[in-house]
Amino acid sequence: MTVSPKLIPLAATAVVLAGLYASGCLCFANFGSPRVLVNLLADSSFLGIAAVGATLVIISGGIDLSVGAVVAFTSVWVAALVGPWGVDPASAIVSALLLGTTFGAVMGGLIHGFRLPAFLVTLAGMFLARGLAFVLHPQSLGIRHGFFQQTLVQDLAIPLGERLALPVVAVVFPAWLVLAICLAHTTCWGRAIYAIGADEHASRLMGLPVGRTRVGVYAFSGMCSSLAGVVYACYTQSGNPAACTGFELDAIAAVVIGGTLLSGGAGYVAGTAMGVLILGLIQTLITFHGGLSSWWTRIFVGLLVLAFVLLQSLVAALARRLAGAAVAAASGAASGSGRQE
Questions:
Q1: Band of pLDDT at residue 137, cut at 50, 70 and 90
Q2: Any domain includes 31
Q3: CA–CA gap between residue 320 and residue 191 (Å, rounded)
Q4: Is the pLDDT reported for residue 282 higher than 70?
Q5: Burial of 309 (0-12, 13-18, 19+ CB in 10 A)
Q6: What is the pTM of this model?
Q7: CA-to-CA distance for 257 and 306, rounded, in angstroms?
Q8: In b/e form, how buried is each residue of 249-260, taking b as 16+ CB within 10 angstroms?
Q9: Please, are residues 196 and 118 in contact by the beta-carbon 8 Å criterion?
Q10: What average pLDDT is seen over the chain?
Q11: SS3 call for 142
Q12: Range of the domain at 67
């Protein structure tokens, strides 16, 4: 049975995730308790949602540096609407999602229409969204609305026991993950994303809608970032224009650790979810240890990203070798049949 080289990084991610969790359970009492798992899922929710959008962008061969700024802007937008401006929460959330989707679509249109580098366009988008967040409100703005303080936190929480409940913010991430997996692997749009990331020129020759797909990918990433901003506002009960600085790098790190190739064309949304949980587990392990600075999280994440980049290079070399061997075998078989004739 032949294993695809593309599955090797995904398998490595699963091994790292299982190893970290097993290490925590062995080293610390109560690490495997349901409360720790619920907190891990809730703490990782908004990063996971944003990383899902970043995954599809990277699979398509692009990059999105505006993720963290859009999350911050959305949190301030929602806090300002339901607070000083007196808008009902449903309208505030819907408007935030529409703004994020439109923002991403505009960046995708600029990238495709004017053949601009995605790095520079999304960098400009990052500065624009961050600046608009500070224009809306220069400081952190608390949310005092009952929908956020009572309904989302308590009324809609799923009870798991007498003293434990699964909050709404912890449910949104798995639900959004399932939606993204279905879009990526069961739709024509998802297959076009993989094809464009693997070879854009060949995709054009096959008649795939390259422009529409690319704009759609960035629109979806903008929607994911805005949804992550809504979840962040619910989680912190506030909007903060200075929040999530460097957040886009965390999302990219989760994507890389999840086994997605930065060159595009290969990757799995499920792998990104495992990458997000790995980042959360590292932070949880450091918290349980108690003797390490939180900056050790960055050190461990940096080492993991470097290890997975090296693994991806080895996998790419292995794939090229297997492809070369297959071509050589086919050529040998063709020459042998030619001699027989």
A1: very high
A2: no
A3: 22
A4: yes
A5: middle
A6: 0.92
A7: 9
A8: ebbbbbbbbbbb
A9: no
A10: 90
A11: strand
A12: 41-281
